[in-house]
Amino acid sequence: MPMFQPELETLPRPKLTELQNQRLREQVAYVYERVPFYRQALDEKGLKPSDIRGVEDLHKLPFTKKKDLRDTYPFGMFAVPRQELARIHASSGTTGKPTVVGYTKGDLEIFAEVVARSLAAAGGRPGMMLHNAYGYGLFTGGLGLHGGAEKLGMVVVPISGGMTDRQIMLIQDFKPEMIACTPSYAQTLAEEFKKRGITPEEISLQYAILGAEPWTEAIRQSVDEGLGVRATNIYGLSEIIGPGVSNEDVNEREGLSYIWEDHFYPEVVDPETGDPLPDGEVGVLVFTTLTKKAMPILRYWTGDLTYITREPGPSGRTHARMAQIRGRTDDMLIVRGVNVYPTQIEAVLKEIPEVVPHYQIVLTREGPMDELELKLEVAEPFFREIGQKVLSDEVIEADQRLAHLREKVARKIKDNVGLSVKVSLINPGTAPRSEGGKLKRVADLRKLR
């Protein structure tokens, strides 16, 4: 498999560690000098930059959390004056002030470089056309993928998100080989092609690079089959750089993504204590940027739950690999004392051929107890087989196959997740769909009450 920067992607582990140690020492001294937040944080711990000799000393440093970025809004975490910035991005700010991130020209070069590595790992090649359906604007996805694709030598179609009819038309007319979007929007496009009677063999796409929301092997399978592609996961977050922190290799697709750890040093820590965990154990993913200059971050608590391994991958790359995100500490649902992540439910659904992974979780509390309802689409072949409108309560009660399917789904979730749920089967195409952005699968009505 060709690589964008093979000399760095296959750097022997001792050389890679030496580079990380050097860059970490420089970064800690840099932030101590330029970012009052970090100077105060280190002073409070009685630390000097010289106390951090390499990655083995990272645990001595405090965590940086999203609240710290909001408390220093808008530019309090920046290490350079505004005049030295080349670009500013920000989160949506749905829970208050947005999280603001900045980039120097050098940072944007690094951004393009790691995205180019990711695209190459996902199957991208110079001269290929990328249909970029990530949103452009303050969100880092659109411009991030755009810059990396140009760096790799690809032709970019900056379609952005939404306008599904236009997306379908341009894919048919331009015949791109690769698409970048969220997994849920890839599913939406696959369904739209199917409605138009266009088979996967008639679609020009060969590869899909998907990210910005957690997804499962069931969703990968539906995208692969629906679009006729090989889909890989791209991981990133704005606070670290944006998309391109890690990516799967298209020939491996084991759910393990290579972290470009010459730029981003990963740790996994215990969600409760913050203590570092050994490779292979699931915990909270933490990143330290090693090369960013506008907004360097030490030990950023991502909230994402995963594990990492430093065993060499089949591709020959030597960088650490992270597993698919299992959920987020802040996305965790606590229902009757049970911790539940939507991805756990998706993992159960992939084992049931009569349903598809289009669903909505509805949480209510009419009395003293929480109730979880799973609104779940039946698969079209099963729907045609029963020949009934699933939304009709009378039909559901009358058709034993539907009653059996509801019981089957509920039993499997109970066995695997440990939670009793009410399963409501709904018609194909009626669950919420993505229109290009992140898909909200959970409606927590307890908060409204």
TrEMBL record:
Q: Mind telling me what this protein is named?
A: Phenylacetate-coenzyme A ligase
Q: Which domain of life is it from?
A: Bacteria
Assembly, per entry: Monomer.
One function term, GO molecular function aspect: phenylacetate-CoA ligase activity
Organism annotation: Meiothermus ruber (strain ATCC 35948 / DSM 1279 / VKM B-1258 / 21) (Thermus ruber)
Q: What does this protein do?
A: Catalyzes the activation of phenylacetic acid (PA) to phenylacetyl-CoA (PA-CoA).
The answer to whether UniProt assigns keyword Ligase to this entry is yes
Q: Recorded E.C. number(s)?
A: 6.2.1.30
Q: Its catalytic activity?
A: 2-phenylacetate + ATP + CoA = phenylacetyl-CoA + AMP + diphosphate
InterPro entries under this entry?
AMP-bd_C_sf, AMP-dep_Lig_C, AMP-dep_synth/lig_dom, ANL_N_sf, PA_CoA_ligase
- What family is this protein classified in? Belongs to the phenylacetyl-CoA ligase family.
- Asked if Hydrolase is a keyword of the record, the answer is no
Q: In which pathway does it act?
A: Aromatic compound metabolism; phenylacetate degradation
Per UniProt, what is one Pfam family of this protein? AMP-binding_C_2
Provide the AMP-dependent ligase C-terminal domain boundaries: 337-446
Alphabetical keyword list: Ligase, Nucleotide-binding
GO BP terms, alphabetized: phenylacetate catabolic process
- Residue ranges occupied by any AMP-dependent synthetase/ligase domain in the UniProt entry: 79-287
Looking at the UniProt entry, the stretches that span the membrane are: none
